[in-house]
User: Which sequence fits this backbone?
C-alpha cells in the first residue's frame, strides 16, 4: 500500500485502500459465521480444521505465484483475502468449539490466556522472521551466491510460499490429534431422516442468547468496543505517517521500521497480558469485572495514543492497550464456555461473534472516510473518551453484573421459552379454528 500511495496528498487513497483490505476480511466473516458455527456443531470439527488449513495453504501458494509473476494487483489481492476469510471462518468456528472439549472447566481461564499468549508471541516473532526472509535474496546476492532465491527481487513471494507450507503442516499435525465431538440426538429421527436444518440451528443459537439478556448485554459491550477500536489499526498507520513523522524521522527510522516497531511493541503488550492471565488463571468469580475494567484501561490508552506527539509515548499507549486485550477476551471467553453447553458452542459462539463484531467493518469503513478528512489523533482520542464513558457506566449495569448467575439465566430462558410455546400454541389453534370444512377436507386428502 505504501508503494501504491506514497505521497502525502494520497492520504485519502491510502486510507481507503487500507480499509478495503480490512473489509475484505471482515465482511465475508460476518456473513458466513452463523452458518460456519452451525456446521461446526453438525460435522467433525477435526476434519473441518484439516480441510480449511489445506485450503489456506493452496490460497497462500497462489498468492506467492502471483507475486513471483508480478501479476498481483489490488483487486486480485482483495479477492484472495476474501477467500482466506471464508476459509478462516469455518476453521475458527470449529476451533472455538473444540478446545473447551479438551480442557477441564476450572482450567479454562488459564487455557484462554495461553491461547492469547501464543497469538501475541506470533506477532512478535513473525515480523522478525518476515523481515529476514524478505531481505534474504538481497543478502545472497551481496555474498555472491546464485540460485533461484538470489534471483528474486525480494523475499516477499518466498515468505508467502513458506506461509503456504505452514498451513499444510498444520493440517498434517491434526492427523495425530484426537478432538472429541459432542453427540447430538436432535438431528435425525429413528429412521435416520433429518429433523433439523442448519437455519434452525442458527435460530436456536440466537434464541439461546436472546433469552439470556445479561449475555446480550455482554455482547453489546463488545459491539461498542469493536465499533470504536477497530478503526485504530487504520488510524494508527495514518497517525504514524503524518502526526508522528517528525519524531521517528529525527530518530533515523524509516516508516516501515517505525511501523514494524509499533507492531512488535503491541504484540509484546499482548504477550504480557496473555502471560499474566496464563499464570494467574483470571478471576474465578465476578469475571465480568475482568472484562469491563481492562476495557476502561484500554480506552484510556486510546486517549493517550491519540493525544501523543512522541513516537515512544504512542508506543507505550499501544503496549498498554494491547496488554488489556488478552485479559478482557480471556474472561469473556471463559464466561461463554462455562455458560454454554458443549454441543451448542459452535452455533451459539457464531451468533455471539456476529453480534459482537458486526460493527467492526462499519468502524473500518468509517475510518476510510474519516481518516482522509480529519486529524487521526483527534479521532482516536474522541473514540477513547466515548469508550471510557460507556465502559464506566457498565460497572453499574445490574443485568450485566449477573451474567455468570447460570441458575438465574436458565430460569430466565425457561420463562421466555414457555412464552414462545404459548404463542406458538395460540397460533396453531387460530389456524385450526380459522379453517373451514373444505380446508379440512383438502388437508385430509393431502394426507
Assistant:
Amino acid at each position: 500500500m505504501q508503494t501504491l500511495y506514497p505521497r502525502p496528498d494520497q492520504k485519502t487513497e491510502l486510507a481507503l485502500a487500507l480499509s478495503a483490505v480490512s473489509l475484505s476480511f471482515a465482511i465475508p466473516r460476518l456473513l458466513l459465521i452463523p452458518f460456519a458455527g452451525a456446521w461446526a456443531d453438525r460435522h467433525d470439527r477435526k476434519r473441518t480444521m484439516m480441510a480449511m488449513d489445506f485450503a489456506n495453504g493452496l490460497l497462500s501458494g497462489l498468492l506467492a505465484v502471483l507475486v513471483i509473476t508480478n501479476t498481483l494487483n489490488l483487486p486480485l489481492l482483495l479477492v484472495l483475502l476474501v477467500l482466506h476469510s471464508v476459509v478462516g471462518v469455518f476453521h475458527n468456528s470449529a476451533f472455538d468449539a473444540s478446545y473447551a472439549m479438551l480442557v477441564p472447566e476450572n482450567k479454562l481461564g488459564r487455557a484462554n490466556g495461553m491461547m492469547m499468549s501464543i497469538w501475541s508471541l506470533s506477532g512478535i516473532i513473525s515480523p522478525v522472521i518476515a523481515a529476514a526472509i524478505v531481505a534474504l535474496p538481497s543478502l545472497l546476492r551481496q555474498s555472491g551466491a546464485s540460485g533461484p532465491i538470489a534471483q528474486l527481487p525480494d523475499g516477499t513471494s518466498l515468505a508467502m510460499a513458506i506461509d503456504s507450507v505452514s498451513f499444510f503442516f498444520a493440517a498434517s499435525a491434526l492427523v495425530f490429534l484426537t478432538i472429541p465431538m459432542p453427540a447430538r440426538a436432535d438431528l435425525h429421527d429413528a429412521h435416520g431422516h433429518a429433523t433439523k436444518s442448519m437455519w434452525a440451528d442458527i435460530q436456536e443459537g440466537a434464541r439461546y442468547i436472546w433469552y439470556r439478556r445479561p449475555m446480550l448485554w455482554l455482547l453489546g459491550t463488545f459491539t461498542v468496543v469493536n465499533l470504536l477500536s477497530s478503526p485504530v489499526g487504520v488510524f494508527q498507520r495514518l497517525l504514524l505517517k503524518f502526526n508522528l513523522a517528525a519524531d521517528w524521522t529525527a530518530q533515523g527510522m524509516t516508516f516501515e521500521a517505525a511501523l514494524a516497531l509499533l507492531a512488535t511493541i503491541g504484540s509484546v503488550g499482548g504477550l504480557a497480558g496473555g502471560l499474566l492471565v496464563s499464570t494467574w488463571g483470571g478471576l474465578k468469580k465476578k469475571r465480568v469485572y475482568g472484562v469491563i475494567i481492562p476495557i476502561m484501561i484500554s480506552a484510556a490508552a486510546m486517549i493517550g495514543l491519540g493525544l501523543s506527539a512522541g513516537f515512544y509515548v504512542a508506543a507505550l499507549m499501544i503496549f498498554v492497550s494491547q496488554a488489556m486485550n488478552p485479559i478482557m477476551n480471556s474472561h469473556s471467553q471463559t464466561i461463554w464456555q462455562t455458560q454454554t453447553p458443549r454441543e451448542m458452542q459452535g452455533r451459539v459462539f457464531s451468533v455471539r461473534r456476529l453480534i459482537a463484531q458486526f460493527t467492526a467493518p462499519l468502524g473500518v469503513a468509517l475510518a476510510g472516510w474519516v481518516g482522509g478528512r480529519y486529524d487521526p489523533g483527534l479521532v482516536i482520542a474522541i473514540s477513547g473518551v466515548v469508550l471510557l464513558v460507556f465502559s464506566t457506566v457498565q460497572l453499574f449495569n445490574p443485568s450485566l453484573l449477573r451474567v455468570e448467575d447460570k441458575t438465574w439465566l436458565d430460569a430466565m430462558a425457561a420463562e421466555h421459552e414457555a412464552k414462545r410455546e404459548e404463542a406458538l400454541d395460540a397460533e396453531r389453534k387460530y389456524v385450526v379454528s380459522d379453517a373451514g370444512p373444505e380446508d379440512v377436507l383438502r388437508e385430509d386428502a393431502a394426507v
